[in-house]
Amino acid sequence: MTPEALFEKAKKANAIPENAKLQSAFQFGVDPDELADLVLSGIKTATTSALDLYRDDEPLPQTGAYDVVLDNQNQAVCVIKNDRVVATKYLDVDAKHAYLEGEGDRSLAYWRRVHHAFFVEAYQSEGHVFDEQNANMLLENFHVVYPTR
């Protein structure tokens, strides 16, 4: 199902307001299916993105906005709503946020290990160098408002 079709289905089911707008549709990380399953199960309720890598024409995530989570085939898995969006430095991400991301053993040490590798590659692919001392992040907390299963 496309993100737009799922979003309209969620509106018709009264899971979201009729006037709600779709902010974005995206896959999580390097294993979209596994991470989407964590979202659907309620284990993953947070994510982190690199504020430094957003383009000028790309809208930033907003509190109260709706997104569609995609699987590795770009099929819609669920609609989520952002409960909180906060900008912070990479090194200021805390253990609570790491836990809410729901990955691995949910520890800050695990979060730092996998996210460091992820951001090194992401920054490099955009022609930048990841500097964990100065990297700006967006932390999002969300909940599922309409699952496909």
TrEMBL record:
Matching SMART domains, A to Z?
ASCH
Give the top-rank taxon of the lineage listed in the UniProt record for this protein.
Bacteria
The record's Gene3D superfamilies line, in alphabetical order, gives: Sulfate adenylyltransferase
Q: What InterPro entries does the annotation carry?
A: ASCH_domain (IPR007374), DUF984 (IPR009326), PUA-like_sf (IPR015947)
Show the SUPFAM superfamilies listed in the entry: PUA domain-like
Q: Which residues form the signal peptide?
A: none
Residues in ASCH domain copies: 26-146
Name listed for the protein in its UniProt record = ASCH domain-containing protein
Which species is the source of this protein?
Leuconostoc lactis
